[in-house]
Structures are given as C-alpha cells and as structure tokens.
C-alpha cells in the first residue's frame, strides 16, 4: 500500500471554552474565560467555540456566554463559534456577536429523545427558522451531528442514518458539518470508513471530526480521518470535557496532544505547542483538577 | 483511497509482568506475579513477557524472575518470554525455563552508551554467544530494538540506522524483531513509513510493535502499524510501565485499551475484555496506584 496521503495543514477548532468547561462544577469568571480564549488565540487558534447559548439553569457554566462573546476582541481571521440548540439560542448568539453559529442534532434517536424530546427529523425541521435568521444577519451557520458514530444506549449508528441528517443540513444551506463522537465509541476503522464515504458522497461539505478520548482512541481516529481526507478537527485545552455518561472518563482530546502529534508528523496546525501547554496549565488551575493530557504529563506538570 | 487492509487477527504479547512492573517501587510477591500471569492467560494471552533476567541490584522488582518462571504452569500454546541483556541473563532465562529469550539493543548510540556502555554494534556482537547457547538448548531467541523511532536526547532515529541492527539480528538466526518506541516519540506517520519499509525489505521477519503511550499516540501507532501490515503488538495490563525518562508520564499502552480498540474494529485478539479489566484492576491494587488505562476509567473503576 502506498503511503496514505495526509493534509499538509489542518484547522483545529478549540472547543475548550464550550465543550471543555460545560460540565465543570467550578464556574469560571468571565475574566478567566476571556484570558483562556485570548491565550489560545495567542497560541495560534483561528477558530474557537467560545460557549453555548442554552438555558442557564440547564448548563450553569454557560450562563455568561453572552457577556463573554460581547467582550471578545474582534480579530481578523479569528472565528468565534457559539453553540445553540434552538431558535432562542441562535438569536442570543447573533445578538452577542459570534462569527458562526453551530446547531446540533443527535444521530441517535434515543439520545435525541433524551436531549430534545424530539426525533432527529423534528429537530432538523426546527432549524429552518434559525437558518433564515442567520442568513438575514450575514452570520454563518454550521451543523453538528452528535453521537454520529454510536451511542452507549444504542450501539453503532449505521452510516445510512447519517445521510438524511446531512441532506437536511444541506437543504438549510449548511456546508460545514461536524461528526461528533460524543461517547468516544468510534474506532479508527469506522472513522476511516464513514469519513471516506461522506467525503465522496458530499464533496462540497467541509467535514469536521469532533473526537472524544473516552476510550483512548481520539488520536487514532484523527489519524484515520486524515488519511480519509478530513482536515478539520475539534479539541479542548487540557483534554477537559468529561463525558457525562461515564463519570471519570476522559472528555475531548487535548489540543496540546493533537498539536504535538500533527506537528511531529509535519502537518501544520498553526499552533505553538509551548503556548498551548501554558493555556492548558492555566485551565487546570482554574478548574482545580487535572484534565486528561498526555503532553501536560510528559512535560512534568 | 481504498480501505486500508487490516489483519484479521493479531497477537498481543502481555509485557506487564516485565515492562509494566520493572519500575514499580512496590515489590510484588512471587504469588502475586503468578496470579497476574495466570489471570492474563485466562483472559486469553498466548504470549507473556514474564520478567527480565538482569542484575537484582539494578532492577530489584525483577530479582525473583527465576522463581516466577520456575513456578509457572507449562501450557500448550502459551509462550513465556524473558528479557535478557547479556549472556549471564540468557543462561538464567534458559535455566529457569522460558519458552523464548528476548535480547535487546538500543538503536540510539546515546542510549546504548548510557544503558550498556557499548555501541549498538558491540552489543550485537555480544549476542553471538547467546544465540549459540539458545540454539543448543532448543530455545527460541527474539530481538528487540529499543528507541527504534527516536530518543529524547537524540531526536528521531533514521530508518537507515535500523538496517544494520536488523542485519546483525538476521546473522544470528533471529527472525522475530520488536520495534520499541521506548520514549513514546513515534507518530503514526513515522510508524507507517518505518514498518512498511521494514516489512518490504525483510519479509521473512515477524515484526512486533512495542508502543509506549507517553504522548498519547500508542493506539494511533498500532492502527498505523496494522495498515502497514504489522500483526504483533506488546501491551501492559493497566498501562503500567512509566517511562523513567519522564516521571509521571504514561508507560506501555494498556492491554485493555488495545483489546477494546481491536475487538470493536473486528480484529480478533483472542482476549476477553472483561477478564483483562479484572486483571488490570488487580494490578492497580497490587502496585497501589492507578495505571494509565482509558478502559478502566470508563468502566467506572
């Protein structure tokens, strides 16, 4: 077999301020969140998921996202992404001033019912108004598919169940879709198969892999996705973001671990590893416990 | 790109009793070591690196390897491998009754000098007597190449420096060679490149990858190695085996993490995951601290 072709450069979206912090019981101040976001931009991030616009009682750690976004410095070439799960959230995100809104649907019917009390199709239908709203205001809209590879209560999600969700996103004019391995069940063989198929079937979509490291496979999945042609990845400083379905388990893959792997492979990330490590140490200090970061451990912290 | 071909089944050698335990300050009793080895055999292991035959003052945790091996039940189809670094060790290993002796040389000249006060070539020359001794007694001999991908003090080891070591092993009649990523520096691109080249150049050698998870890349490296045609891997229960050069860093990849990834990929390992987890929990109890195991964490232990 010839050497797998890899992208020469990738985009890593830092999702720590949202996915990393959302389940933390220690609530960070707006100032600390801004310091983290500014630190990761200084480290090279061009895309940051800065928070979610959900009900403050549902996710207390995200209650101040509006203020965080309003106080962010606008920087050319830096994208601030905000997660919203309904029209109210999209309104708030646009009002606060995010560059891009991300909406999300669960590929698992079980998970979708638990999360939204609706089928995936019903959730997608609800995004029509959000898409029109964003379009009117010149804001980009991207779509995430959570539990895209599998769900603990349901097992593997067949690829065929992903197609109608993608089609629905395309109908809304969305051209950037994130495949989220929410429960960290995906393995590199599956990631390679799914992403190869989706890229072939939907070549105009910008595909992102959002891996979780719950079972230690995140870097393997990123490598497999790259050999399939994926060049956009989500990661979280210090590997924060424990899966709520598995207490104690790892969460998102650590940004510093991804940067280290890719840079040593000669794949450009635009990140400065030392600066990412500095931010990751600060995050651990803020939340008051270690995350899950191989590079922090090996660097003696 | 067509789907990478993967082996249908692999051999995982459980190296925990040697590489996992050798740096532990808590010394296990012979009974506890035997319980772990018997447990991992019951979990499906067909190859176990049961200890090393080195000077007891240099590695106190391995001082009782002779007794451990003597007390092991001989089981058809189960291989007991012992590591030796000189003729004295090979003599002891054969006397104790291992099925296979593994000798080792460091590909890094710096590391080789630190470890053996000799050049890699001098170390290899010294193995001639070991090979004759094993051959006379009908014992198999395998060769390991430590720091085969890189060394912290030296950086990347070029592939060209591996060839003369392989040639020297072949001259001794050795046909099973382990590429050890001692410091966990290898990335999947390098592993793919090196293993593809070595398999093409030396098709009659049984190649093993011995990954360390120091920088979180062990599972990615195993996946990359499988796509290159490797089907033999080393792993350690609970991911024990911290790298002495990076205190606090991860060591060997956890056997349970490898078994989980491969079995979910449809690659047969012959291991029962639940039984491996039981052994891994017992190891953590014996050594008195957690190892580095994603599957133990996600299983709520």
TrEMBL record, chains A, B:
SUPFAM superfamilies: Aldolase (SSF51569). One of its GO terms (molecular function) is metal ion binding. Keywords: Lyase, Metal-binding, Pyruvate. Residues 10-277 form the Pyruvate carboxyltransferase domain. It holds the Pfam family HMGL-like. PROSITE patterns: PYR_CT (PS50991). This is Pyruvate carboxyltransferase. PANTHER family: HYDROXYMETHYLGLUTARYL-COA LYASE.
